[in-house]
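ingest -> fold -> write
write: protein_1
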Amino acid sequence: ITRTVEDAKALVSERQVQMKVPATAKALEDAISNIRGAVMIAYPMGLPDYDTVRQILEEREELEGNAAGLQVLDVDQTSLWCFNKELQRVKLLSEYVGKNDKTKVVAKLQKKGAGAPQREPIVSEDEQKAMIAFYHKKQQEAEKLALEEEDAYLNSSW
């Protein structure tokens, strides 16, 4: 069961986002059915009706008053934001993006009336580290050149 759950968590992990691997509905449904199958193998007599795992797998758990309830957003109280605009439910995404299939869209869910969510950084962390390293190297080269005299080549033996 643990390995099956870890495989399912890997599907929705932040690492998948960094590797730019999309999470498809089919893959998520397969992961849930794998967990359901692992639970059936581990508990052939079935779980009791009050068990949380059974309630989650049957989609009848109570989310009110616990931490998991904070992550679930109500459809009527949620808005989708993209391009620093709130997307309207009646319009298609192609009306905002265009017909290009290769366009990458980063959208965020936000509670209605909460305003626009925080913007995505323009430069990723790895790119920023590479830029800082390059700048630091150039700065060291400039300091090294400033210490040398301009006519140092005149003192050479050739």
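write: protein_2
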Amino acid sequence: MHRKTVPSFITIILISLWGISCNNNKPAKTQFNIMETTIAKVHHAFENGGLTARQLVQMYLDRIEAYDQSTKLNS
């Protein structure tokens, strides 16, 4: 590479890496298993932004529906 293109190339790479790091500001969403959790883990997930109350309720509703359909409990 020529002396003039090396700084340009490095600048492009740094800007690209900066753009990637800016898009990663959201907290990581973890897979939350309601069958194997504790109240402390639920609180921790709420505090870290990995889980909302709405998501938790929806998980329980989905679980109820899955059991209801397979066993005809009509819960």
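write: annotation protein_2
The longest helix spans residues 53-71.
The two ends are 70 Å apart (CA to CA).
pipeline exit 0
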